[in-house]
Structure formats: structure tokens, C-alpha cells
Amino acid sequence: AEVYTNHDYEPYATKRDGEIRDFLEDKDIAFHTFKDQVIFEKDEVVKDDGDPYVVYTPYMKTWKSNFNTSDHLKIYYTNSYLGNLVEHSRLPNLSLGDMGFKKSGIQVPDYDVTPTLIDQYEDTRNYPAKDGTSHLGPHLRFGTVSVRKMVKKALDSKNETFLNELIWREFFMQILWHFPHTTTDAFKKKYDRIQWRNNEAEFEKWKTGNTGFELVDAGMRQLNKTGYMHNRVRMLVSGFLCKHLLIDWRWGEAYFAEKLLDYEMSSNVGNWQWAAGSGVDAAPYFRIFNPMTQVDKFDKQRAYIKAYVPEVDTDDYPEKMVDHKEARERCLATYKKALNQ
Predict the structure, then answer these.
(1) Closest of 228, 153, 15, 35 to residue 237, by C-alpha
(2) What region, left, alpha or beta, does residue 44 occupy, with left being phi > 0 and alpha being psi -120 to 50 degrees?
(3) 159 and 219 share a domain?
(4) Same domain? 217 vs 188
(5) Annotation marks residue 165 as catalytic
(6) Residue in 63, 206, 272, 274 annotated catalytic
(7) What is the tally of structural domains in the chain?
(8) Ramachandran quadrant class, 23 (left: phi over 0; alpha: psi -120 to 50; beta: rest)
């Protein structure tokens, strides 16, 4: 007997697979794992000296330099081998219910990778009301779509923005593989000295979309209702939690992990550390989004806001929970104190 599976790069998964390999070896069962969910993995894209890239742009350039269609988009025809597999049967096993899962009322949306969407991706992806994103996330996460087919579609477009987003995913995966401690610790060690306020009442307002900041609230309510949040809005709500409220990025990362349909540890941790300023290729800590001007830039007609915050223009909508200027100054002082120790 032999067991075949594919590589998984999260710390828990690598530990699990090692234990399964040892267990099977004791029973003289071979355990084979293969690369599948990425084009490049682990240390396949590194600097000339063998060190991993911790900045996206040079990683992306090397990724593209190493890529070639004949090797990396090769088609493997498997139908003739399927007869070698054990046929599906109802074996005695735990059900999803036995493990504590229950069926959700949230439906996973179909993905859209039409040439029109990919060609226009750069122009439309930042506007949440247009919903110009592909919704590929859950499908890549759970393997219901081939990353090689998606790369091929991206290469058919002259605009490389969509391809670059697929490369971002692999950038964060190799970061997690090289630096597994970043699931709990800041990549930049000194950022763990920040004295977070971690006010639980304020965290609850953020979670439920009742901060008084329209675009933040729309994003959180979209997440709670649909299991999805537009990426531009994710940047705003994560930055708001870390910098306006001075709540530990790990709290936000854990909440997103609970709610997101497309949750992938590498991207979630990477993006939350980016928002906090503590991660690889992160925004400088003094870059703090203004939640009001973000509305003017990305939802000027407030169509997205009104879709998720229908009471926004009524007396039922809460007052702003913090003053932007005061929160910004508090954040800068807190970060500066921690980083200058």
C-alpha cells in the first residue's frame, strides 16, 4: 500500500505530515508528497546567496525569470491511472458533524477569470462597489481550481496585474515556510515591544461594524454576512484595528481566520503583519490610512457603504468611536516609543 498527497506549507501541516510519514513507515506503507498548489515552493525562488526574499518586487522578478511555460504549465493526463486508486466507499469514519462542523448558510461564490476581468483587473480591483475581483481565493485554497490553469489565463493578458497577485500568494507561502514563527511573532522583532491597548469593548465594535467609520463598518459587515471582504477594504479595516485602536494584529488575524471563506494562513498572517508594520515588505508604521479620505477615493458614491450599512445616514448610526487625528498621534507615539527602545 502507498499513500499519495500534496505539499502543505503551514507549520501545523508540516508537523502533521511528518508524524503521518513516521506512522506509515512503521507499517511499511510508503508516503509520497508532491508540489501541487503553487508554481514555485519553499526555496525554489531565492536570492543568489540562497537566502529567501523578504521583499515582494525582487521575488516577483525572479519568479518571472525562473518561470517557463513548458516546464511549469505542463499538462499531466491522469485518466488512465485512476483505476489504480481505491474506489470511494463508505468507510467507518468520523463525519464532519462528529468533528464539530455544521453546514453554513453562506454560499461560496463562483470565481470569475474571464479575459475581460483579467484585462481590466488593474483598473477595477480597488473599487469595492464594482466587485472587480475574481473570487478565486476559496477555490485556490481548497484546490477546486488549478493554479496552473489560472496562471495560464493570466499570461494570456498583456496586463500583468492579475499574474502579480497570484505571485503575491506564493511570496507569502514561501515566507511562512522559511519563517514559521511569524504565525505568532512579529517578523521584525522590535515590533513585539509595542504596548497594545487591546480594549475588548472597542474590539467588539470593530468586529460588528459599529465603529462610526463608514467604510470600516461596511467591510466588517460584509465579512460577517458573506465570509468575504474586498481586498482594498481589508487593508483599511486591518490598519484601523492596529493603528487607530492599537489592538494587537493577532486578534484581527484570528478573527479573519474564523470568518473568511478564503482564509489561508500565509496570506492572512502576511497581510496582517503588513498592516501592523511588523512584517516582510510592510508599510512603514507612520503610514496610517485616513478612513474618511478612503471613502472619497474608493467608494465616492457610497454604493458599497450603503449596501452593508443601510442606516448610515440616520440617527441610528453610531458616532465615530475615535478621533482620527488623536488616534493617529497616539499610534505614532506608541510605535515610536516601542521601536526606539
Answers:
(1) 228
(2) alpha
(3) no
(4) yes
(5) yes
(6) 272
(7) 3
(8) alpha
- Count helices and strands (H / E) in the chain: 15, 2
Q: Is residue 78 scored above 90 in pLDDT?
A: no
Our answer to whether residue 196 is catalytic in this structure is yes
Give the predicted TM-score (pTM) of the model: 0.93
Catalytic residue (one of 168, 210, 224, 290): 168
Neighbouring C-alpha atoms within 13 Å toward the C-beta of 102: 1
Mean pLDDT of the chain: 95
Tell me if residue 89 falls in helix, strand or coil: coil
Q: Is 168 a catalytic residue?
A: yes
Residue 324 or 89, more confident: 324
In the set 126, 224, 231, 290, the catalytic residue is 231
Angle at the Cα of 327 from the Cα atoms of 321 and 329, rounded to 5 degrees: 165
Residue 279, domain member (yes or no): yes
Catalytic residue among 44, 165, 199, 224: 165
Share of the chain above pLDDT 90, in %: 89
Provide the residue range defining the domain that includes 116: 43-75+104-178
Which residue in 249, 253, 264, 271 is the catalytic one? 249
Could you confirm whether 272 is annotated as catalytic?
Answer: yes
